[in-house]
Amino acid sequence: MKPITGTFIDEITCDIPSQNWGQKEWETEFNTMKKAGIDTVILIRAGYREMWAYQTEITDCYGQAHLAELLLDLAHQCGMRFFFGCYDSGKIDHTCLGWEADWEINKKAIPEIQQRFGSHPAFQGWYVSPETCIASPGSLEIFRRYSDLMKEMSPEKPVLISPYYPSWSYVTETREVRHHKFMEDWHQILSHSPSIDIVAFQDGSCNFNNPGYPFSELKDYISETHELLKDFNIIQWNNVECFGRDLPIKFPPIDWRILRKKMEIADPYVEKQITFEFSHFMSPNSMWISGRNLYNRYQKDILGISE
Length: 307
Hints:
- The protein contains nine helices and twelve strands.
- The protein is of the alpha/beta class.
- The chain has a single domain, classed as TIM Barrel.
- It is globular, with a radius of gyration of 18 Å.
């Protein structure tokens, strides 16, 4: 089974606890990721609300002014590819209403990122940060405009997206209708966005308590996506989420049995397994003790390394 060889990096979001890492801790983490076989890191957002991972000239901001540069340097030292995310206001839902305000910032942020970091040897790809699961007018515009501008800035760099499989969007529909709508929506999105090179659907909205996207349908969605992406000559990765959604805590590390099962389901169809998100939820350096234990189970069962 393919191991996890890529991870998102997320230190400026709202729904996971900060670990308050500085240079020393990030150096330790990158060396840990390298040892675990990770060769690709994806900065999920360059900016989120008023927080940025670098000192932007576009908006007032706070955060770690040199975080992006530090992460790029560490990725280069560890021989990893770095995908750069863009800005996300945190105000756009899965329908992408109000996309215009975010676009006004990103049409400045994407060129700024390219100008400031484009020549860094680790910077080898782009990531479209907003997430969706349906072909709404807003999502069509976001995927097309963001990916086209990224390609304009650096044609040689692949563009990655990581949307999610349908959950509440199709909750009232039958299984047959859900899957039909899913295929129709993503055919429309990909037809509209020729600059997208890699798609890594999130599997985490699938869980045992979700009537709109039960765990039993994960294989169907992955296999359907596989056929669709082949038609568009797009690379398929799998974003196997390593945090749980079945508990009231937002969010704990996932049960190893579920993570392994999700990896097994996706394995025959995808070129690469990536995760959201190694550092918080399955690193031995995580603040979560259960995350450290998850890493031990993963090492033993997937990498064949004894504790």
